[in-house]
Amino acid sequence: MKNCNIYICLFFLSLIFPFQAQNLKEGHWYGDFKLQEKHQLFFHFSVDGMQNMTIHNDKENVEMQSFEKVNDSIRVYFSSFPNYLIFKINKDNPHKIKGFFVNPARKSNGRVAFIAEYFGKEVENLPNNQSTHKNIAGKWQTTFNAETNNAYPAIGIFKQNEDLIRGTFLTETGDYRFLSGRIIDNQLRLSSFDGSHVFLFKATLKNDTLKGEFLSGNHWKTNWIAARNDDFKLKSPDSLTYMVKDDFEFNFKTLENKDYIFPNKELKNKVVIVQILGTWCSNCLDETRFYKELYDEYHSEGLEIIGVAYEYPKTFEGKIKRVKQFSNQKDIVYPILIGGNASKAESSADFHMFNSISSFPTSVFLNKNGEVVKIHTGFNGPGTGEIYEEYKKKTKALIEKLLKE
């Protein structure tokens, strides 16, 4: 009888403390993703005493949700995206783990293998002034998919400290967020892992030209070429999407499955931003964080923001669940409606008064009379530094001007 009680106690303890026997060691871990063609992408995360995991993506800290036991593995979801890491701790060496980064929305190649090892203390990423390296700091006119019908322009902006490189690429539909890496001799490597993307940029510098490859996870690869050009500019993000019909109107479902018709009397004499987004989109996440700032600052003065989300879950209920998770996690209080599937073609059909929706996010700014005054395609976020700060400043100035009219 006593033995039975002991077993029962042990059983209930295993339910209360499911990770007691397989906790990740507290401190810093370093790992490598296994990309296509045997390429590797370095990443870094830390675990605190409460088993909370944080991905360190250059200057960005990507917080994870709580651990979840799945058979003999551990799964941990990203707080901003429906993606997750799933891994096993090495039974013979608890300083090592092995697993996958999983994007469940991707039907094929949605798993990227990784290994990681425990280092305890953070390994300082110090510049090496003894190594041979070229100077690439500055602005680079860039073409991705070069010499193809699908070529598209970008601007590479890099800062350099000895052999350490930080920066990003701006495109006409958004930026590639926080990138960091090194240049050794004439070989450049930049990477990013933010819970949505696994990006690796490789290039060789020759005769003032960078030429290389851009890999995304284990499913996509293209070429890129860049040359210094301080005067190069992309098309204005305010010019890519424009009205082809006079009336701006729509009807989407709320998270309570009720019709939301725009325009409506509740928005009379209000300044309105309509944000066309996807909760799976990193640029949309950056924009939403900024719009939360705008809403908190200007809502009492008459600003309204309405999101319209295009999502990967196929069912309406799945879309609602994902948007609710996103709103709750990011403390978003302005309404986000359900647009449809994660498709630019579908969103373009819904917003047929425009020439097209070429990017998530796309934002429509309306004055108090319900007139469209600006349509902004894409979003260049905090990874772009001064460009991001300048955009925030100009947008706040526009909102203040419209509120005073």
Structure summarized in a few sentences:
The protein has helices at residues 2-16, 282-298, 316-329, 344-350, 386-404, and strands at residues 27-34, 40-47, 53-57, 60-70, 73-78, 84-89, 96-102, 111-120, 138-144, 152-161, 164-171, 174-175, 179-184, 187-193, 198-206, 209-216, 220-228, 250-253, 259-262, 271-277, 303-311, 336-341, 362-366, 372-377.
Secondary structure blueprint with pairings:
Elements: H1 2-16, E1 27-34, E2 40-47, E3 53-57, E4 60-70, E5 73-78, E6 84-89, E7 96-102, E8 111-120, E9 138-144, E10 152-161, E11 164-171, E12 174-175, E13 179-184, E14 187-193, E15 198-206, E16 209-216, E17 220-228, E18 250-253, E19 259-262, E20 271-277, H2 282-298, E21 303-311, H3 316-329, E22 336-341, H4 344-350, E23 362-366, E24 372-377, H5 386-404
Parallel strand pairs: 20-21, 21-22
Antiparallel strand pairs: 1-2, 1-8, 2-3, 3-4, 4-5, 5-6, 6-7, 7-8, 9-10, 9-17, 10-11, 11-12, 11-13, 13-14, 14-15, 15-16, 16-17, 18-19, 20-23, 23-24
Walk me through this protein's architecture.
18% of the residues lie in helices and 41% in strands. The strands form four sheets. It has an eight-stranded antiparallel barrel with strand order 1-2-3-4-5-6-7-8. The chain has an eight-stranded antiparallel beta barrel with strand order 9-10-11-13-14-15-16-17. The chain has a five-stranded mixed beta sheet with strand order 22-21-20-23-24. It is an alpha+beta fold and 405 residues long. It has five helices and 24 strands. It is globular. It folds into three domains: 102 residues, Lipocalin; 91 residues, Quinohemoprotein amine dehydrogenase alpha subunit, domain 2 (Lipocalin, Beta Barrel); 155 residues, Glutaredoxin, CATH 3.40.30.10. A hairpin with a 2-residue loop joins β13 and β14. It comes from Brumimicrobium salinarum. This is TlpA family protein disulfide reductase. One of its GO terms (molecular function) is oxidoreductase activity.
